[in-house]
Amino acid sequence: MSESGFGDFEFERKFFVRAMPAVAASDPSPVLIVQAYLFAADGYAVRIRLQGPAPDRLNGTAAELVGALGDDAIGTMTAKGPAAGGTRYEAERDLDPTVAGQIVARAEHVVTKVRYSAWLGEDGWIIDRFLGGNAPLVLAEVERGGPVVDLVIPGFCATEVSEDDRFRNEYLAHQPFGGWADTYLDELRLLGPKFVESLGRNTFG
Fold first, then answer.
1. Which of 38, 57, 90, 140 has its CA 20 to 30 A from that of 169?
2. Which of 37, 89, 116, 171 is catalytic?
3. Where is the active site (predicted)?
């Protein structure tokens, strides 16, 4: 939830990354996220997430990864609305981690990823390295308490996918990136990188 008076809205921009950037290694405490989508249609989604310190062993099924998360795991349930202009309704509430883990372990449409955090300039960035069927996808996101305008975009961001629904986690839960990665990379080579121009001035660092 936003703490800047916007209520249950999130403001973020998302970018496709070709390979893990070196800055991710500066995070001493990466987080394993295992999340299930119980409903997803027309931009609306209901998500159950379990997250905690990333264990050394990161292969296995979603149920096995849930089991690998320790006592410090956190459970949440989130309702999302359609995104527009880098803004999306997102109401998140705490959920008992045992209940969250049991739901995720039994769910059909699951996304697993390791999240790294880094502070770059004036913004905090997260880098998500996806596991399982979504490997080798890497996405970078920046989130603010209000619209993400006049952004300094790091050099490791190959193209912006903020408005590409294929890179929403609920889509990836149903259509894993590994199944269409080659098609997307061919598309990127043909069309070249794109960045949202309606959110102030983009600066490339």
1. 57
2. 37
3. 37
